[in-house]
């Protein structure tokens, strides 16, 4: 099951978040070579890990094996303040659009080839389920262009926001990916399980939404 942790509640999940930050460091610093993110304590934390961030954690036998972070586009996020050169059109902004960042899965749970591993399916399903519960239907992603076709095959409606550019040593493209129940059905069919992947579906306030 996927646990959703609001940025205002990370103190209640100190062990889970410590594991998540260390997983991020392993993936982005040690494996991908993003040395600018390196920290002496091997916990990758940045300026967007604030009260507005939403953390999604996948645990197996008490160990965090998968993680991702969602950021509201109505506040500063990667595309707006770190990688603005990736966007060559009007930047998508709105309460229904969040940015998907820091996706990390431990090596033993990644699977092989270009297929979607069970952990990746769980994490993507969590975004779609959470989005459908909270009025979010689109996410911004900065990713390897090789993922474009895969997202389309998973029934995301994908719109490139610019051409691929080199970030560090990697090719990265920014996209807006819209999802709906068809996306969730595809992910569930691939998983062979139509039950919810969320441990719970908390009432989450959407940044800027009218209450």
UniProtKB/TrEMBL annotation:
Keywords: Autoinducer synthesis, Quorum sensing, S-adenosyl-L-methionine, Transferase
Swiss-Prot/TrEMBL catalytic activity: a fatty acyl-[ACP] + S-adenosyl-L-methionine = an N-acyl-L-homoserine lactone + S-methyl-5'-thioadenosine + holo-[ACP] + H(+)
Protein name as it appears in the record: Acyl-homoserine-lactone synthase
EC number: 2.3.1.184
Recorded family membership: Belongs to the autoinducer synthase family.
Record-level Gene Ontology MF annotations: N-acyl homoserine lactone synthase activity
Domain of life: Bacteria
InterPro entries: Acyl_CoA_acyltransferase, Autoind_synthase
Source species of the chain: Methyloraptor flagellatus
PANTHER family (UniProt xref): ACYL-HOMOSERINE-LACTONE SYNTHASE (PTHR39322), ISOVALERYL-HOMOSERINE LACTONE SYNTHASE (PTHR39322:SF1)
GO biological process, one term: quorum sensing
């Amino acid at each position: 099951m996927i646990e959703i942790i609001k940025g205002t509640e990370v103190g209640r999940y100190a062990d889970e978040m410590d594991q998540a930050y260390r997983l991020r460091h392993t993936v982005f610093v040690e494996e991908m070579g993003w040395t600018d993110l390196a920290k002496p304590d091997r916990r990758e934390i940045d300026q967007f890990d604030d009260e507005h961030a939403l953390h999604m954690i996948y645990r197996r036998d008490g160990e965090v094996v998968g993680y991702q972070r969602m950021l509201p586009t109505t506040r500063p996020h990667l595309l707006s303040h770190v990688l603005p050169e990736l966007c060559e059109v009007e930047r998508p902004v709105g309460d229904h659009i969040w940015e998907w960042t820091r996706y990390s899965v431990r090596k033993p749970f990644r699977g092989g080839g270009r297929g979607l591993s069970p952990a990746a399916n769980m994490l993507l399903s969590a975004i779609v389920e959470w989005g459908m519960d909270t009025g979010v239907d689109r996410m911004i992603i900065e990713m390897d262009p090789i993922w474009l076709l895969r997202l389309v095959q998973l029934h995301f409606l994908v719109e490139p926001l610019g051409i691929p550019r080199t970030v560090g040593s990697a090719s990265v493209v920014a996209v807006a990916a819209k999802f709906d129940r068809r996306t969730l059905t595809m992910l569930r069919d691939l998983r062979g399980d139509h039950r919810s992947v969320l441990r719970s579906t908390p009432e989450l306030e959407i940044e800027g939404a009218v209450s």
